[in-house]
Amino acid sequence: MADARVHKGVIPAAGLGTRLLPATKVVPKELLPLIDVPVIQLAVDEARASGIDDLIVVTSRGKEILADHFDRQPELEAHLRERGKLEQLAAVGDVGAGVRFHYTRQPEPRGLGHAVLQAAAHVGHEPFAVLLPDDVMLGPRPVLAQLLDHWRPGFAVVAVMRVAREEAGRYGIVAGDVAPGSRAFRVEHIVEKPAPADVPPVAWAVMGRYVLDADVFDILETLPPGAGGEIQLTDALAELARAGRLVAVAYEGERYDMGDKLGYVKAIITHGLERPDFRDRLAAYLRSLADAGRF
Ligand code: UTP
Question: Which of 97, 236, 273, 290 has its CA 20 to 30 A from that of 113?
């Protein structure tokens, strides 16, 4: 019988990050920081705050330093301790604390569905969460925890956000709608990157948080390549939607695509304006730019 609690998570981090080249030529895009915290660490923190204590990161050649980031650094810790830099010591000690990490490789970037499939042996028969690290979620409550509130064994849950028709072609788009006073709805069907003509003026788009049942691996294994010649997670979700087993949650919070140049800048500015350590100075600086007619 399936464990009624979700405690395992998968972080796909094997993509090439081509939209951020040349920054991502050597540095994995998952390690690019939102100011001072790498985006993958934000995903790990969100998972931990949602009750996940076991994470498998799907990496690829050249991304070994992702594992280094979540390992201990005794020399650095001793250095900070000796100099009384206790705040920094606590920040370093907190990286990934309370989570067991595992790593596996995706030999080639054959798509998100294929990346998730690489975690099958580790996940076994349990339900599990998937967090895409370049989708940074800033909300009043961890977005994954919001999804878990609506998860039941045998169902899959996806995070959705409203997007304009012109943007729909970048996402998986679900059909269905929230009832008044509710945040969750049963998905009737889902399509990856639809043409604008096929979507309503405002559509529900899937963002990078999922709770899945282990039987999704059986579906992924049999899928032919979909949009872009890749094994699409959306195509597996479409099969679950057809079986009435897919739920969408219109989560509370903001989402930034840190894998996109403009999304990256927006996230830094918005998050910077929430940081007590320098929000006033940043706000004053932005005002001075506006006053000087720079935008
Ligand atoms: P993206 O499509 O945003 O990542 O996938 P990408 O392919 O690296 O980006 P661009 O378009 O070339 O800039 C979302 C997440 O899925 C992972 C990525 O690492 C990212 O965290 N992913 C994607 C894989 O692990 N394997 C893949 O084959 C594709």
Answer: 97
